[in-house]
Design brief:
CATH architecture of the largest domain: Orthogonal Bundle
Largest sheet: none
Distance between the termini: 37 Å
Helix content: 55-70%
Number of domains: 2
Strand content: under 5%
Number of strands: 0
CATH class of the largest domain: Mainly Alpha
Number of helices: 7
CATH topology of the largest domain: 434 Repressor (Amino-terminal Domain)
Radius of gyration: 17 Å
Structural class: mainly alpha
């Protein structure tokens, strides 16, 4: 597993959720220096630590593994769901309709 890619993905989600490194480290139960090294990709984390981080961020483990798993693609549904969840209902509905229309048009082009 690429520790730098994993750390970068965790960092992106942490920032997206408005957390500082210190806040997330405390919530996960890690020393700030150790957590900072994990996020920077300087240290490999245990499976237990990985799961604690994913659970604390309330995010699917696949989202944190983007770039490390060959079959997840670059944008799993959980990642899109996380982004959509942050939008007001009106904007979320509009974006979903736009996505559906674009996906239908692209599928028609492939037939």
């Amino acid at each position: 597993m690429d520790a730098k890619k994993l750390g970068a993905q965790i960092r992106m989600v942490r920032i997206d959720q408005g957390l500082t490194q210190a806040e997330l480290a405390e919530q996960v139960g890690l020393a700030l220096k150790y957590y900072s090294n994990l996020e920077a990709g300087h240290k490999n984390m245990s499976f237990d630590t990985f799961i604690r981080i994913a659970n604390t961020l309330h995010i699917d483990a696949n989202t944190l593994l983007i770039g490390n798993l060959e079959n997840t693609g670059e944008c799993p549904a959980s990642f899109l769901g996380m982004k959509l969840k942050r939008l007001p209902e009106r904007n979320r509905s509009l974006l979903i309709r736009i996505f559906e229309k674009a996906a239908d048009e692209m599928a028609a082009e492939c037939e």
